[in-house]
Write a structure and sequence with these properties.
mainly beta, Barwin-like endoglucanases, 8-stranded antiparallel β-sheet, Expansin-like A2
């Protein structure tokens, strides 16, 4: 059944809609980025190239059963003597199940919140009070990419994950069809950023994504992505990039940049 029959969008009234809600929480850090790159989103070593090693694990409300994977956030700690007003921009690559903090950052991202010369001082604290907001991901001159996972077995099973997703959105549904066909079949979220199907169309493949955008959502159509001879372990250019902004409900909004 086509995707538009099986997804539900949460509508937000325009009176409370905001694209930059500021939240307050605490953040800690992992001493090794490898913990976050090998995390629940399934990015593996590719995560290190998503945000210069500025990675984060988020609590379930941010991870959203994998839909939050690849989301970008800006955090800054509230110690104005120790920390800068700009803070640190991170990409979500893992699930944080520690209820003491909403985020656990890579040490590089954690130190980036500090003023010049104070990065070691912030590490000594271990946990800091922070404020954060969702921000658009930016991958200049880089389209949304599709990586065919090694567990794929042509022609009966296909598993993929999306990389370099721009904008401020979440992928909440994926359809696949042979190029030139309108016979769409849905893919299921296996875990994190990985989607799969055991009903693989023959020939070159196109994808139709449902993403959160504006007050509800939209379709993004990648018309020619995988060639007929697609191979496991290879990354393919989708030919499109997502730049939409999804709204959330809060008051007041933060309309400016943190610099």
């Amino acid at each position: 059944m086509a995707l538009f029959l099986c997804f539900l969008f949460f509508l937000i009234s325009s009176a409370t809609a905001c694209d930059r809600c500021v939240h307050n929480t605490k953040a800690a850090y992992f001493s090794s980025s490898s913990v976050l790159s090998s995390g629940a989103c399934g990015y593996g070593s590719l995560a290190l190239g998503l945000s210069g090693g500025h990675l984060a694990a988020g609590v379930p409300s941010l991870y959203k059963k994998g839909a939050g994977c690849g989301g970008c956030f800006q955090l800054r700690c509230k110690n104005t003597t120790l920390c800068s007003r700009k803070g640190s921009k991170v990409v979500l690559t893992d699930l944080n199940q520690n209820n003491q903090t909403d985020f656990v950052l890579s040490s590089r991202a954690f130190m980036a919140m500090a003023n010049n010369g104070m990065s070691r001082d912030i590490l000594k604290l271990g946990i800091v009070d922070v404020e954060y907001k969702r921000v658009p991901c930016e991958y200049k001159k880089q389209n949304l990419a599709v990586r065919v996972e090694e567990i794929s077995q042509k022609p009966q099973y296909l598993a993929i994950k999306f990389l370099y997703q721009g904008g401020q959105t979440e992928i909440v549904g994926v359809d696949v069809a042979q190029v030139g066909s309108s016979n769409w079949g849905f893919m299921s979220r296996n875990y994190g950023a990985v989607w799969d199907t055991s009903r693989v169309p023959a020939g070159p493949l196109q994808f139709r994504l449902v993403v959160t955008a504006g007050y509800d959502g939209k379709f993004v159509w990648a018309q020619k992505v995988l060639p007929a001879d697609w191979k496991a372990g290879v990354i393919y250019d989708s030919g499109v990039q997502i730049s939409d902004i999804a709204q959330e409900g809060c008051s007041p909004c933060d309309g400016g940049d943190w610099k």
